[in-house]
Specification:
- This protein is an alpha/beta fold.
- Helix 2 packs parallel to helix 3, helix 3 runs parallel beside helix 4 and helix 8 packs parallel to helix 9.
- The longest helix is centred in the middle third of the chain and has 18 residues.
- The structure holds pterin-6-yl-methyl-monophosphate (PMM).
Length: about 280
């Protein structure tokens, strides 16, 4: 079954949770709440990647995420660290993270591939074309699915040459990163096109701008959680390894529906003795 990665942004400027979890204690509490709601993994990030966001220095990033990772890992939570910085990834792994989630796929920090290789952790390489300030101007594609596929395949070659084991790699098409809304929908519609790379895929659609296309113009950011849960189902049906979401409860409920339907499809699942279920 597709894993649920709950988002824990320890930033004052994240667009989707308004920095509500910026203090360490509140962040730890929210991380535990995500697990109680059904998260398999908690993705801890200290630098916002939203379009136009300003960069955070690696020491500031570490001071935000490391205490949170330490506390959650001590309580047995499976942690990924959402970072572009090799030093932060290294410190996060030492603090108990078992997944490095790098939205740049190793492009932002030349030392990342070596840190990932040495760590022996799962390494998520997302499709990326530049930092928040520059990615808007880089959303140019001949064929977005073919181009993202080719650029991810190239990352796999570089990362495995640097020592990252293929068996530790996960790929991500990077919805919303140097993509226009129509690019995001096209990638979602063609997740199967990445199957031939032979690696697990993860999908991060949660609360992103393209999701607003299915809602009334004045809808709030939080109202993107329902369409996000539907996208989680589509990603699961396409065989995704994980979905990265803010509203873990909604996606867990949606996955419970999938699990019930799958169980009911098993031979012998039908129970004719049961009464009418009104
Ligand atoms: N999106 C964001 C941050 N990290 N990581 C992966 N692997 N995939 C994503 O799509 C992704 C990510 C941006 O979203 P946020 O600002 O809501 O955390």
């Amino acid at each position: 079954m597709t894993l649920i990665m709950g988002v824990l942004n320890v930033t004052p400027d994240s667009f989707s949770d308004g920095g509500r979890w910026a203090s360490t204690d509140a962040a730890i509490e929210h991380g535990l709440r995500l697990v109680a709601q059904g998260a398999d993994i908690v993705d801890v990030g200290g630098e916002s990647t939203r379009p136009g966001a300003t960069r955070v220095s690696p020491p500031d990033e570490r001071s935000r995420v490391i205490p949170v990772i330490t506390a959650l890992a001590r309580q047995g939570v499976r942690i990924s660290v959402d970072t572009l910085n090799a030093d932060t990834a290294h410190a996060a792994v030492a603090a108990g993270a078992s997944i490095i989630n790098d939205v740049s796929g190793g492009l932002a920090d030349p030392l990342m591939a070596a840190v990932a290789a040495r760590s022996g952790c799962t390494y998520v390489a997302m499709h990326w074309r530049g930092h928040a300030q520059e990615m808007g101007s880089r959303a140019e594609y001949g064929n977005v699915v073919a181009d993202v596929h080719a650029e991810l395949a190239a990352r796999v070659v570089v990362l495995t040459s640097a020592g990252v084991k293929r068996s530790d790699l996960v790929l991500d098409p990077g919805l919303g990163f140097a993509k226009r809304a129509d690019h995001d929908w096209e990638l979602l519609a063609n997740l199967a096109a990445f199957d031939d790379l032979g690696l697990p895929m993860m999908v991060g659609a949660s609360r992103k701008r393209f999701v607003a296309a299915v809602l009334p113009a004045d809808a709030s950011v939080l109202s993107r959680d329902l369409p996000t849960a539907v996208i989680s189902v589509l990603a699961a049906q396409a065989g995704a390894w994980a979905v990265r979401v803010h509203d873990v409860s909604a996606t867990r409920t949606a996955f419970n529906v999938l699990a019930r339907v799958a169980a009911a499809r098993q031979p012998g699942a039908r129970d004719d003795s049961a009464g009418h279920d009104a």
